[in-house]
Design a protein that fits this description.
This protein is about 0% helix and about 45% strand. With about 350 residues, it is mostly beta strands. It starts with a strand and ends in a 9-residue tail after the last strand.
Amino acid sequence: MIKRTVLLSSALILVVALGLLPFRPLGATAAQAACCSYATDDLVPSVGLDNVGNRFVFWSNLQYGLEEAFYDAATSRWSKAFTVNGGMGPMASEPTVAVGSATTTTIGSGYQFVFWEGQPPDNNLYEAYFDGSWHGPIDLKMGPLGSAPSATIDMSQGIVTVVWRGTDNQIWYAYTKDGNSPSHQSWSGPHKAGWGPVANPPTAADGTSPEVQVFWQGNDDYLWHGTLEEAGPPVFGPRRLNSGLLGSQPSATGYQPPASGGDVYHVFWFGTDGQLWTQEWNPVLGNPAGSAGPVTEIPRMGPLGSAPSCAYQQGTLGNFYCFWAGYTSPYNLWEASGSPKGVVGPTDLGYGPLKFS
């Protein structure tokens, strides 16, 4: 493994991401490439964390199936990469994951919900979930999707929300209140939030408040924001933030710091300079526009080979984890983690190739 540590003075530190991949995976045959169509802005692997520090990373393998690797916090070790239940595919986008609260420190004691866009002509929303064993693929309909989806979960209420860009370049969403009993899921959707035109797949983040914060790259390449009521309608948006130009779709993560009066959200993206950038956004009582913090570059992390995928560990003093595809061959999975004490990474985890060529 390659690892280095970067110390930052800002309390806004973290790092990493996965994804942005071009036309077909390294090693894929012409027949495999013809089988499955991908849009370049859909190819971002996904990370989810539970409340005890286990990290679950999913991506599409060279056969367009679902691949996973996880970090076991109890043993401080990464698993080998493996194909989930025969792959679940072929998928037409990279997956997204939402992870529920773990009931014990045993790896996988929390529910995992994975979603992706199905293949043409329907391009429906598909799901697989883990409740001790894997189930799926499940066709939730909802299509046609116009991008990879993004999923988030309210761990306390068990509300799972999935957002995506529609074929009309607007934001659409669906939700279930059955995240604590996944074998009995009942879904509501698709619902149109609007807020477009949207340039890339949106990202959704849920904290402890009864709202879902949605962020996306607009057609002007700036960061935009809107708010959904949990299991309900849009309540605010769209609003452009003072982000400067994004080079990729964003990745958002929310948490509630100890002794804090509310949630804090961090949004990460691949900058036009190939580096990792982030901006903090805070809800403000009585002002749905909230308060956007300064835009910050995480130094010496790039060039990234993809947009990032980042998640915050709930219940900690500030531990972020980000993942992305490497910039050069063999296009492995890279990780960085951040806290108010600094950023550790980037670290080459060795899984690959993740980047298409």
